Amino acid sequence: MFHAFFRSTLPVLPLLLVLSPVNSSSCAMENKTTEIHVKYENILIHDINELVNISAQNRDRCCKNKNDKNIKVFFCNDTQEIESLQSMACNMLRFFHKQRISKAFRWKAAFVSCGTLQVLKCKCEGHRKEKICPHVNVFGKEDTETGEQSRKKCNQEVCELKENISSLRSCWNKFEKIISR
Amino acid sequence: MHRKGDSSFSFHLAPSSQPLFSGKKSTSWLAVSKTTAFCGNTVPLYPWTSWAAGKMSFIFMCGNSQSAACLLHCVTLQLRKAWLWLFPAPAVLAEVKCVLFNEEYMNCTWGSRETLKANYSLYYWYRNTSNKVECKHYRQDQDIRVGCHFNQNEIIQFQPFHVLLKASMGGSTLEISKRMELQDLVKPDAPVNLTIHNMSNNQLQLTWATTYPKAKCLEHAVKYKSNKDTDWMEISVNGDVFSLPSVDYKKFYTFYVRSKVNKYCGRTQLWSEWSVPVVWGSNSTSKSTVHWFWIHTVLIPIASCVILLVLVILLVRMERVWVILMPRIPNPSKNFDELFITHNGNFQEWAGVPKDVVESFKPNYSENICYVSELPPKDSYDPLWESSNPPPSVMPSASPAPGEHSPYKNSYGRV
């Protein structure tokens, strides 16, 4: 009798493993493209453009000379734009505590990351979003650093952040293009 | 190569030299040592151009110190300078510019026949540098490659697009690499099918269509003016409808439209070309305006000149017309020739006044002149009547003949 029990139940476990989604998305706005579209066009796009302008102020000549293999590149995969945006936004939160990056730059980057995660209602591994985003207030008034801080020496982390920002912006453009009908 | 003293070298360029220092132009000198060790000051190159049996000598000096690696670095740098001095690098390498036309094909260009002198090769890749692909469709201008054409299946947007342009000339090769985002280089085609609709309240509505695959990703600009305006009005439009309120039916309007990818789908700054224009308004107004313009500026001046010319000719050739236009000033002196010549100015004689009438006007009495003067007043007032002369009497008389003395001439005011 016990042999029969185990014979009947044992195959269920592998079946559960096969049927369970391997990479389940932790974003809750998968099918709500209209709402994402409205929030992106009315709110998020402006912060992204400001972040891109700040990124452009940082010297990028040194980034061109650095070995591209050392910089992690994110791709906006077809049919997986939301997951790609989530991955880029979560990765960008890593730079929030990097002291070699100017405070204005990394705060704005964190602000955009949190905005992206909020619009898409996504989470990050290690609760990074919950640890950082509550501390990122409205950007601009609290930060008193001038543009001179943004002209710090170029380093690997700055190059990585610039690459991350460029990928995030492109992926948002791609997603917006897909959902615009 | 020979070493002279402690730190100077002489170098001979000749076909028989060893490969590392060969004088053959096909050898690439650009693969120099990458050591960045500090090697001290080096003296600039002193080319010693002596062509003897096909050999050229260069003498240069390196710093005093140093390790063999440092000396080798110095030597290779000087050799590179010598080579570049002999064979200057191609004066080339314009920037690579790519434009994605309506997401159907892409052209990347790097110059023109007038500016380019070398052989070019373009390589591109998206993700992995190991997947470099050479351009399959070069654009040529008289056997010089000036650009590359990409088909739609070779284009991937929203991924970093890398190009590597190699220019080779005279054995040396220069490279330029560039990274681009193709969605930021899109240039849509011009809008088509511009249509004007008459709405109520003197309002016009302009609509158009686009061949761009994602119409919602476009923003548009409408340019219009009437035949009475001097400058164009340009308005930005997000949708594909433009409304113009309060149009004048007597005017003639012309509309143009162009498109650009909006900021939500990319960061391109490339506008499309202006569309084929569409017009609205009264055609007759425009025609009559044109006719009136020709009448005012051409016909009337010419007609006026012709008429003037005819009149001048008539004036010169026909005395009858001259007399009518320029009548003679009448001269009455002939009528008075008889008065002055025959009658010596005697008007009565000339007028035919009878002699007895003339005689009757002549006075037939004589009269003494009575001088009247006023004496200074004394005690009594009676100076006037003490004079021996009788008091003058005021008698109405005919006006004296011309030339005769009148007794009342001086005392007229005393009466």
Automatic annotation (TrEMBL), chain A:
Coiled coil: none annotated. Residues 1-24 form the signal peptide. GO terms for molecular function: cytokine activity; growth factor activity; interleukin-7 receptor binding. It is found in: Secreted. InterPro entries: IL-7 (IPR001181), IL7_sf (IPR038325). Keywords: Cytokine, Disulfide bond, Glycoprotein, Growth factor, Secreted, Signal. One of its GO terms (biological process) is immune response. GO terms for cellular component: extracellular space. Pfam families: IL7. It comes from the Eukaryota. Belongs to the IL-7/IL-9 family. This is Interleukin-7. It comes from Lepidothrix coronata.
From TrEMBL, chain B:
GO terms for cellular component: external side of plasma membrane. It is found in: Membrane. PROSITE patterns: FN3, HEMATOPO_REC_S_F1. GO terms for molecular function: cytokine receptor activity. It is a single-pass type I membrane protein. It comes from the Eukaryota. Residues 382-415 are annotated as: Disordered. The chain crosses the membrane at residues 292-316. Gene3D superfamilies: Immunoglobulins. Signal peptide: none annotated. Keywords: Disulfide bond, Glycoprotein, Membrane, Receptor, Signal, Transmembrane, Transmembrane helix. Residues 190-288 form the Fibronectin type-III domain. SUPFAM superfamilies: Fibronectin type III. It holds the Pfam family TSLPR_D1. Belongs to the type I cytokine receptor family. Type 5 subfamily. This is Cytokine receptor common subunit gamma isoform X2. It comes from Lepidothrix coronata. The gene is IL2RG.
